[in-house]
Structures are given as C-alpha cells and as structure tokens.
Amino acid sequence: MAFTPFPNPDLESANDRGSFATSNPVDNDLGFGRVVANNARGRFLTRNGQPTARKLGLKGVRTARAYLAALNAPWSTFLLWTVGVVLLMNGMFALGYRALGPEALSGTETLGIRDPFLAAFAYSVGVFTTTGVDGMHAVGVTAHGLTILQSLLGPLVGMIVAGIVIARLTRPRAQLRFSDSMVIAPYEGGRGLMFRFVNESIRDITNVRVSVSLSWLETFDGVRERNFHQLALERSDVPFFPLHWTVVHPITPESPLRGVTPDRLRDGNAEILILVTAHEDTFSTRVSVRQSYTWEDVTWDAKFSSIFIESMDEHLAIDVERLSRLDRLPEGTTRTAPEAEGSMVL
Predict the structure, then answer these.
(1) Which of 18-27, 192-201, 213-222, 255-264 bottoms out in mean pLDDT, i.e. has the lowest?
(2) Where does the pLDDT of residue 45 fall: very low under 50, low under 70, confident under 90, or very high at 90 and above?
(3) Domain boundary at 138, 170, 202, which?
(4) Which residues, at least 6 apart from 13, have a Cβ–Cβ distance to it below 8 Å?
(5) Confidence at 10, pLDDT banded by 50, 70, 90
(6) Of 170, 187, 210, which residue is a domain's last?
(7) Number of domains present in the structure of the chain
(8) Whether 115 and 150 share a structural domain
(9) What is d(CA 53, CA 175) in angstroms, rounded to the nearest whole number?
(10) Burial, 130: exposed, middle or buried (Cβ in 10 Å; 0-12, 13-18, 19+)?
C-alpha cells in the first residue's frame, strides 16, 4: 500500500474537526487512521487478509517473518523448504570437505561411491543427522573442525524444525475458505451484497461472528475522501457452524450502497474488509480470520449456485468445491438499481 507525502493540510484540518464528512459521518476507520486512510493508494488487506502496511525500523523483523511464514505455509511447502534447506546445508559442507583436498576424508572406499563429491555429501549427511558415517572419518585439523561444527549444527537445526512442527500442530486457528468473489444478487425483492465461506478443518468452531466494512471514496461539499462504513448484515453471528454460511448485506435505502452501480464501485476504489471471529473447540480459544474483496472481485447479474448435495445417509451435506460456483442471471438484473433503494452518495 503506497502513500502520498505527508502532511496534507486539508486532511489534517478535517481530522481536527473530528469528521471528514459533515453530512455523512464515518462510522470508524478500523484502526487505520483517517489521515493514513485518505493518503493510502491500493488495498488495505491482501486477498488472504494480511495487512499491506509495513513498519520500518524494527529489529529482528526478518527472523520473525520467516518464523511466521513457516507457521502459515501449507504442509507441502513447509516440508519442501525444510528438505531443500537441509540438503543445501549438507551440500555446502560437502563442498567444504572437497575444498580441503582428497586427503580430508578417509575411508570413502567403504561406501562404494566413486564420485568424490557424493562421498563427501554422504559423510556430511551422516554427521549432520548423527546417524553415522560407515567407517569414514576426517583427517586434519580443519576437516575435524568442520565435522565438529556440523555435528553441533545438525541437532540444533533438528530441534528448530521439531519446534516449528509442534507449533504448527498445536497452534489454534480457523481454516476458512471464502468464495472467490462477492456477488450483488436479488434479495427479498431488492438486492444484496453476498459472499460465503466454509470451515475447511475437521475441527469444529462455534459462536461465529462476522463484521463487514466498506471502504471507498466519497465526495462531500466538494471534497473527495475515503470513508469507512460498517455494513448491516442479515445476521452477524451463528452459534453453530457445521456447513457453510452465506453472509448477506441487504441493500436498503439506509445502506451506504443504496443505488450502487459497477461504475460507482470502480470510481470509489471500493474495498470490503471482513473479520470473522469464532470459538475454536479443540483448544477452547477465540480465533480470527481476515479477508478482503475489492470492487474487481464483485460479480453482478449472478447468484451463488446451490452448494447442497444428496447424502446416502440422508444427512445434510455440501460440496465445498461448489463454494464459488455462480448461476448467471439476465443482464441488468442487479446492475440496475431499483428505485426503492434511493439515490447513491457520490
């Protein structure tokens, strides 16, 4: 997220007044700050809910980010990176042994490996993993020094990897999958802004609450500014969450989206920010998930397809692969605002 240069006298004076818009006060700025929000260019959250803002001048940030990346990465990615790093480290030690000359390692003939580098690599892996080296041993002070260093480094790396694995297994979190897009679809004789999500984990979550906020540019008294609006939902919480949930914001005359069109969303550079909190039953704690959609992620003249499927045991069942599937509607079904909604704010 980029920013225009500070300070901005017009925005600062508006901030001092306590509100940017006298005719339509902002509900809240979600903690981004009004001056920052109006100077921001681009989205506030990435598609997977990570903040785009950055804090500079902090120490140890790279290590912390690497640790968080290891926690959040898919298992396949985490294992691939772990194996790759271990192989790279052993390869570097093998090159070190080879750089000392052919006399640095003795007993390589017992391995039956003719290639000197592969023999050194096998020795390196044996020392790194403390599994043994089959009669091979280092010769010389430098070779022994490398062996001692590697024998200390190997268990240390193993403990770090084991700690990350335990943290991944025991860290409470909600694994939610959101629909690829939001839709503005027919709803109770009018229109509604909708998205849906499902719990991808076999672990149950309960007491799920959803908060949806709209961020877009509006013009009041000739001043164009970014405002935040909390969107009223058909329902904002559910006690049980066994299947999926289609979240609906009814577009009524009281909605900030009344009379909205695709052009209005685009011109306003709209972003919809979502916060989902729930009780994670396995670890008995609260967890949260963030999500963001921009105006480009909103689909018009469509509705979500049914996600339910027939079950052999007559229990309720859904097909998660249908989460983002849409049914197209005649052109203009939701692109054109009903007169009952009223006019939109420019």
Answers:
(1) 18-27
(2) confident
(3) 170
(4) none
(5) very low
(6) 170
(7) 2
(8) yes
(9) 24
(10) exposed
Statement to judge: residues 207 and 102 lie in one domain: no
Residues 260 and 320 in one domain: yes
**Which of the two residues, 225 and 2, has the higher pLDDT score?**
225
202 with 300, same domain: the answer is yes
pLDDT band at residue 23 under the 50/70/90 scheme: very low
- Please determine, for residue 306, whether its predicted confidence score (pLDDT) is greater than 90: yes
**pLDDT tens column, 112-124:** 788 889 989 999 9
199 in the same domain as 159: no
Share of the chain above pLDDT 70, in %: 88
Residue 96 lies in a domain: yes
Residue 1 lies in a domain: no
- Structural domain span for residue 321: 174-341
pLDDT value at position 36?
Answer: 66
Residue 331 lies in a domain: yes
30: in domain? no
132 and 191 together in one domain: no
